[in-house]
């Protein structure tokens, strides 16, 4: 099997090296309009080795994924289509209760965009964000392997100081997922409207409303877990620039959920939820002070993708992603029921190339009937730029969770984040970045650590190479480093992860990436949206061609 992968990898390498660099710009003769045509093809060929995660049906198989993007631009009109394919080879039989491996060959994204001076119209697939993520955020998140759009129509119109946006469409996540098997669509209908007005040349005011209709086509067998409808209504005020020394922002949102009726009920319960946000930045010479306050009370809207009678694994997709009070990569699952604030101070001591920063966040989260959970998060660090493009960042943090009820789960976390880029010459540089976590927990009592470090070399813009070393002995994956047996009856689990990656750019229109070894899985969080990513072991070859 590995010989098959090696042959395919060599083919992709040769194909990438033989592609010429060219672009296609032309004019339609009967319209006398400038036009351009772009093509981007990405092929990913994976060999999945034994990853020692305790799951038997995700090892020793191949998959080939293709993503073809075609875009035609004619003056103000842009037409685009994305065709996705997924093929599995020598795939294992699924474990009981898990979905099979399904090949897929279908269009994934279609769009037509007219961009005028004051009017922009989008048909097909589009991204959408209302408010600061409190009311709606449909977007692409590469770090989570997620790409969700709405399939419908979006209109934006500007009239002087007034901007109006309206949209409606069915949720359309990418069915070809980098980390999971092929997944189905949830078929939720989301509609929204937003009006923004600039007042007195300094104040921005906005009103917005969003409606979520879950499974209007009656095609999602997971819809019984979801409400019938949800509504969000809110308003915002902001002063982006107050005399050059401050910026202010405020937003308030109400959310209503109409639940499905239980057996014996004529109508389900109705739930109210609230969210408020305040922020202020003050600029005083070499100092910048940021203050934030956020309060969310049972404030969430999400969906579950369809299983199609067990043919697909289900995935939770978040429709709301409010700003967090902590670094976006922090593993914080509860971002919808917290109240608290954060202060951050940045200081540039006499030189623009040096920044010293510190922050303190304190807030309370709701653990349901058990009670409250109080969380404090302190962070201190510095950034230094040198030799033109050189950069060094070091930050240390302390995060503690203290529940206010008996026998609650306590967490004490100390962590280090580091980043270093050392330019050797104009085009050559060495890079190091990583993080290390040390955790102590009570009830149950346990200590563990985890982290990931990458050491790389870059020859800009042609070539990069890096070594990735990771470790994780958290209770979810074991009790000590290295691959081991917890008990004779337990499967092997991996605790140390070592991988290498190579990237080759040719003519800025062909890129080849090679990844080999093991990557650590676990909980990944971006902007408060979290997802469990399975570990990867094997070889991945990715070829991207742009014309």
Can you tell me about this structure?
The protein is mainly beta and 547 residues long. Among the domains are: 110-323, Porin (Beta Barrel); 345-444. It is built from one helix and 32 strands. The protein has one helix at 2-18, and strands at 24-28, 33-48, 61-74, 77-89, 104-115, 119-126, 128-130, 136-138, 140-141, 146-159, 162-173, 189-199, 203-213, 229-242, 246-258, 270-284, 287-297, 302-304, 316-318, 338-347, 354-366, 372-386, 390-403, 410-423, 428-442, 446-459, 463-472, 496-506, 510-519, 522-526, 529-533, 536-546. The strands form four sheets. The protein has a 24-stranded antiparallel barrel. A hairpin with a 3-residue loop joins strand 26 (446-459) and strand 27 (463-472). The longest helix has 17 residues, at 2-18. The chain is globular, with a radius of gyration of 25 Å. Mean pLDDT is 88; it is low at 1-22 and 477-481.
What is the top-level CATH class of the domain at 110-323? Mainly Beta
**What is the name of the CATH architecture of the domain at 110-323?**
Beta Barrel
Alpha-beta classification: mainly beta
Mean pLDDT: 88
Tell me, briefly, the overall form: globular
Roughly how much helix do the residues carry, as a percent range? Answer: under 10%
Residue stretches low in confidence (pLDDT < 50, at least 5 long) are 1-22, 477-481
Question: In the CATH scheme, what's the topology name of the domain at 110-323?
Answer: Porin
Supply Rg: 25 Å
Q: Quaternary arrangement of the chains shown?
A: single chain
Q: How far do the termini sit from each other?
A: 33 Å
- Output the number of helix runs: 1
The biggest sheet amounts to:
24 strands, antiparallel, barrel
């Amino acid at each position: 099997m590995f010989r098959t992968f090696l042959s395919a990898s060599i083919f992709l390498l040769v194909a990438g090296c033989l592609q010429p660099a060219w672009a296609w710009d032309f004019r339609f003769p009967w319209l006398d309009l400038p036009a351009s045509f772009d093509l981007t093809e990405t092929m990913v060929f994976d060999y999945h080795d034994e990853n020692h995660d305790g799951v038997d049906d995700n090892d020793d198989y191949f998959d080939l994924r293709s993503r073809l993007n075609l875009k035609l631009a004619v003056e103000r009109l842009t037409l685009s289509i994305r065709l996705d394919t997924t093929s599995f080879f020598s795939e294992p039989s699924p474990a009981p209760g898990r979905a099979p491996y399904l090949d897929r060959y279908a269009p994934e994204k279609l769009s037509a965009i007219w961009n005028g001076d004051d009017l922009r119209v989008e048909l097909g697939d589009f991204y959408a964000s209302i408010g600061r993520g409190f009311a709606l955020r449909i977007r692409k998140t590469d770090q989570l392997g997620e790409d969700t759009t709405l399939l419908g129509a979006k209109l934006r119109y500007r009239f002087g100081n007034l901007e109006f946006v309206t949209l409606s469409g069915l949720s359309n996540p990418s069915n070809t997922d980098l980390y999971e098997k092929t997944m189905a669509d949830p078929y939720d209908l989301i509609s929204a409207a937003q009006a923004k007005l600039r007042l007195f040349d300094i104040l921005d005011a906005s009103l917005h409303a969003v409606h979520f209709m879950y499974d209007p086509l009656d095609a999602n067998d997971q819809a019984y877990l979801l409400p019938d409808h949800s509504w969000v209504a809110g308003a915002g005020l902001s002063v982006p620039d107050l005399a050059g020394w401050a910026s202010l922002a405020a937003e308030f949102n109400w959310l209503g959920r109409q639940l499905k009726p239980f057996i014996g009920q004529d109508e389900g319960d109705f739930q109210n939820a609230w969210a408020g946000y305040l922020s202020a930045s003050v600029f005083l010479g070499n100092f910048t002070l940021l203050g934030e306050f956020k309060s969310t009370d049972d404030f969430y809207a999400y969906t579950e993708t369809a299983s199609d009678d067990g043919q697909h694994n289900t995935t939770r997709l978040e429709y709301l992603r409010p700003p967090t009070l902590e670094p976006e990569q922090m593993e914080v699952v509860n971002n919808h029921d917290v109240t608290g604030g954060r202060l951050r101070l940045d200081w540039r001591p006499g030189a623009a190339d040096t920044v010293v920063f510190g922050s303190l966040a304190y807030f309370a989260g709701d653990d349901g009937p058990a009670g409250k959970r109080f969380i404090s998060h302190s962070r201190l660090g510095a950034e230094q730029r040198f030799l033109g493009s050189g950069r060094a960042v070091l930050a240390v943090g302390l995060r503690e969770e203290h529940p206010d009820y008996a026998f609650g789960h306590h967490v004490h976390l100390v962590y280090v984040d580091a980043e270093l880029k050392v330019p050797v010459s104009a085009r050559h540089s060495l890079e190091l970045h990583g993080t290390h976590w040390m955790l102590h927990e009570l009830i149950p009592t346990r200590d563990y650590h985890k982290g990931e470090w990458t050491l790389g070399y870059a020859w800009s813009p042609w070539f990069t190479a890096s070594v990735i070393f990771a470790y994780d002995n958290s209770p979810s994956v074991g009790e000590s480093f290295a691959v081991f047996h917890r008990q004779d009856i337990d499967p092997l689990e991996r605790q140390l992860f070592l991988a290498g990656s190579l990237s080759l750019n040719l003519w800025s229109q062909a890129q080849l990436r090679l990844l080999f070894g093991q990557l650590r899985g676990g909980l990944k969080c971006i902007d408060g949206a979290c997802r469990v990513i399975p570990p990867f072991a094997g070889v991945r070859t990715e070829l991207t061609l742009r014309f």
